[in-house]
Amino acid sequence: MTLSRSRLEAAGLLDLSDKLAASQRLTLADGVRLFETPDLLALGWLANRERERRHAGKTYYNYNIRIEATNVCVATCLFCSFSRLRPGDPGSYTLSQEQAWDKLRQRADQPLTEVHVVNGLHPDLPFSYYTDLLSGFKRLRPEIHLKCFTAVEIAFFSDLYTMSDEQVLRELMAAGLDSLPGGGAEVFAERVRRKICHDKADADRWLSIHRIAHRLGMRSNVTMLYGHIETIQERVDHMLRARALQDETGGFQAFIPLAFHPDNNQMRKLPAPSANDTLRVHAVARLMLDNIPHVKAFWIATGVGVAQTALWFGVDDLDGTVQEEKIYHMAGTEAPESMTTADLQRLIHAAGREPVERDTLYNAVAAPA
Ligand code: V47
Fold this sequence. Notes:
This protein is α/β, with parallel strands linked by helices. The chain contains 16 helices and ten strands. The chain has helices spanning 5-10, 14-21, 28-36, 40-55, 97-105, 127-140, 151-160, 165-175, 190-196, 203-215, 232-249, 275-288, 299-302, 304-309, 327-330, 341-350, and strands spanning 58-62, 64-67, 114-117, 145-148, 179-180, 219-226, 252-259, 294-295, 317-320, 354-357. A four-stranded parallel sheet has the order 5-6-7-8. A three-stranded parallel sheet has the order 9-1-10, with helices on one face. Helix 5 packs parallel to helix 6 and helix 7 packs across helix 8. The protein binds ligand V47. Ligand V47 binds next to strand 6 and strand 7. The site of ligand V47 has 22 residues, from strand 6 and strand 7.
């Protein structure tokens, strides 16, 4: 399917289409123009061309579980509905390691390939809580990939336990850590961080920790929390900072836009981003991030229908079965708590795409005989 040059011209995108076809990099100004075009379908067509050039119709998902071991968090991010400031505050919880391991024991029959752990910044736990957590998971299911702790958590551990970021990463890797998730990136621009998340790792620290993780041989992801106070320029700047680090290291696997959910947090007066905006952000990400292989729609954040539609707007990955997610459900998402692999396959097929179960490192997982 092609789009006519006159349609692209009317959308103000013809020169950008030619640049992309010639594999030329887009600039900050180009990114802003992509966001500003009134022709969402022309933008989607461009993003889909890049998506199909890399992945044809393949759409990746995995068999994973989310474990959020504690919501106690010393940071005061305005967008967060999940955290509780102090242990003992109403609604706060901290799983014992046994309780966390039980979540795997209870799923002994599931062919999980990934455990994704994200926590609050708990001020009182010893470092051994985290290393034991990892080694316990590995003892139970050595084949499962452990994608755990955002760069914000890593920075917090270094400061709390007086170690370097590299030392923390090395010790967690020795205990079983396999890769880092992309959380905590929010929006890199200092103006935004100062307003919405002033008391956690800044953009340079976040990027530096991913740089170290990549040097140590780990892969990671990069997210962007959109749809609150950020400008279009700040969105594109965020993408360009991720692209610049990727030029250095090649260690990012996926870029994951995260739609802001306003329930039960200090930014609850803001509306949630529209489906139009969500499709736009994923499409622009595909076009700006020429060096990051995958663009993921996290269906828990976008909603299932929009994630499915995004498969024609640059997205080639849908995360996975998820199970037990709390951060978005406490912030008001109407998405289900989990999907089965059959659900994921069905919705990918229904969108006219080809489902591929992957592991965390994007190796195809063979279907059971
Ligand atoms: O960093 C918190 C976001 C992130 C809200 O690496 C919110 O594969 C919207 O990082 N509305 C954690 N977003 C989740 C995360 C993630 C998700 C999926 C896949 C991967 C991956 C990583 O959740 C936080 C923050 O940006 N968040 N509160 C909220 N109210």
